[in-house]
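Hello forum,

I keep getting stuck at the same step: I have a sequence, I want structure tokens, and every attempt I make locally crashes halfway through. Rather than fight my setup again tonight, could one of you with a working pipeline run this one for me? It's a single chain of 342 residues.
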Amino acid sequence: MQCIFIYHADNICMKKQIIMKTIAIALLAAIIPVTVSASHWTAVDCVNCMDMHSVLNKEDAIEEGTVSTACPCILISGTEGIIREGISLDLVSGPETELPWEKDREFLKARLRNDTNVLLGAYRTVLKDPLPGEEYNVHLAASLLAGIVIKPGAIFSQNAAIGPYTEEKGFEKGPTYIGTTLTTTIGGGVCKIASTLYNVAVASNLKIVERHNHSMPVPYVPYGQDATVAFGSKDIRFLNDTGSKIMIWAQGIDNTLYMAFYGSRPAPAVEWKHEVVEIRKAPVKYSVNPHLGADEQKQVLEGMDGAVVKSWITVTSGNSVNVKYMGMSDYKPMPHLVEKGQ
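Reply #2:
Ran it on my machine without issues. Output:
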């Protein structure tokens, strides 16, 4: 996962949130690769969804207030509907029309200089509770992207444009998916840039040359609409086939990334459609917290259901309607992490 992080010293709630999220990543990295023996799990009827779920023991499941915490049906509800509708789980990321730089002098000069005065497509990506380094890396990458011009017939590559994501270039440690493990690496977080580039390129009706989905779903863009990068192996690339120059502009403000492409003539209307081929319910992984009571549980990290999703876009220009297949995205489930008392 695959820009200045600012918080006030007196903001105790934010500090606690950051600490909890950091602990959650460490727990997730340690837990996900481990296969839990079947003998440690018990199948029970869930009182919320009337289905069967596997938990550590039956007492945990029937304890009042526990099932609603541990049940994936409660933590992640309506996954199939969410995927089918192409809605981000946080319901805040999506196409954008009001951009923060519209009166910025540097942007206005660049737009005139490059004769890119028409907005092709724009997207807003909201980072849910970003970790230290994540927001910083996104802001830094956005500042490196702003003003890049793609010539007609040229292929844009994120890795070539702003990589490698190293300390020498100013990047810090941030969260990264490596297979089914969530860990931290230098430059972690730049996949938010890749996912946003992907959505803006699609909205601008550009030909996608290379795109890879994450190994697990991400909470900041819809299933089937994410992209990941790894310098030297995975990239997001697209072709400027508009016949004129395209200028990229991007800016990170707090936990929100704004990005837009500008050209010489409007892009057609683009609409996403997704088909759910398979859903893999996210398991619940427990760890012991000695500071919790014997019957107490606390969710540390909300997981996400895995899925196999096929995606299309419908491109409408005047009376012409064209449907394009965008490929299949295969996600492993991200477990819910729950702490329990001894």
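Residues 90-268 form one domain. If your local run keeps crashing, start a new thread with the error log.
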